[in-house]
Design goal:
Layout (H helix, E strand, L loop, with lengths): L15 H4 L2 H17 L31 E2 L14 H5 L5 E7 L7 E9 L8 H5 L5 E2 L16 E2 L1 H6 L13
Antiparallel strand pairs: 1-4, 2-3, 3-5
The structure holds iron/sulfur cluster (2 copies).
Length: 176
């Protein structure tokens, strides 16, 4: 075992006044109070804290903002998803649950009888959208997950996701 060099560091001695925390409490209060009065200034230009008056003023999201998922539709209103499981396989948060069923139409092999996304567990990575071979799932709804008191309300099922959906213009993945 090699030599170990130990460096002793002297403890900073505190006075009784410092140990009481009173000076630091007063310093913190003075900062808070100065912010409070500065932001009461009727001249808004002089304020340093800006409050967005939501919901009257809505924040504009960037063009590539990823919002709630939506399931795209075919021309006849059916779900575009063919239950290939690519999205649920790639999902790093394991929050997509799909059950596949046989479709009556022989040109469509499968469709999702169950398609549920746990939106609270989702980490909004967008991999499901990238993995989908037929433009069946998108994250461009521009909407947040709505606030809820119940955990179950974060489970978005197929019909709810289809309500957020719309017609896809993509050609691949069967008929439009
Ligand atoms: S965005 Fe990412 S975490 Fe969310 S469902 Fe898609 S793959 Fe999963
Ligand atoms: S990757 Fe697309 S087609 Fe495949 S299960 Fe997911 S949403 Fe459906």
């Amino acid at each position: 075992m090699g030599n170990v060099t130990v460096k002793n560091v002297d403890r900073i001695k505190q006075t009784l006044w410092e140990k009481s925390y009173i000076p630091e409490i007063l310093r913190g209060l003075s900062v808070t109070t100065s912010h409070f009065f500065r932001n009461l200034n009727p001249n808004k230009e002089k304020r340093t804290i800006f409050t967005r008056e939501y919901p009257e003023v809505i924040t504009e999201y960037p063009e590539r903002y990823r919002g709630l998922h939506r399931l795209m539709l075919r021309d006849d209103g059916q779900v575009r998803c063919v239950a290939c499981m690519c999205c649920s396989t790639i999902c790093p948060a394991d929050c997509i649950h799909i059950e596949a069923g046989e479709h009556d139409d022989p040109t469509i092999e499968k469709y999702p009888t169950v398609f549920v996304i746990d939106e609270l567990r989702c980490i909004v990575c967008g991999l499901c959208v990238e993995a989908c071979p037929c433009d069946a799932i998108r994250m461009d709804s521009g909407r947040h997950i709505p606030p809820s008191l119940e955990r179950d309300e974060a489970f978005f099922d197929r019909d709810l996701l289809m309500e957020l959906g719309g017609l896809s213009e993509a050609k691949q993945g069967g008929q439009r």
